[in-house]
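Exercise 7b. Backbone tokens:
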């Protein structure tokens, strides 16, 4: 099973937020990411986990 990997602009588009906000989430460790060379990548699973956590926090 291959996990899809997204770029920062792709994550920003999916979440309807700015790329700067995505970088803020990465810096604050709210959104897991990794680097390939100089490029930052985020797995679809990490995006899903972030959205799930935020949804649970808002529901509480």
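Sequence design result:
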């Amino acid at each position: 099973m291959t996990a899809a990997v997204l770029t920062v602009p792709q994550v920003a588009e999916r979440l309807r937020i700015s790329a700067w906000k995505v970088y803020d989430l990465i810096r604050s460790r709210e959104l897991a990411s990794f680097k390939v060379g100089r490029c930052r990548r985020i797995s679809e699973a990490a995006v899903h986990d972030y959205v799930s956590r935020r949804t649970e926090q808002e529901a509480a």
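Instructor comment: Residues 5-59 form one domain. The CA atoms of residues 25 and 31 lie 5 Å apart.
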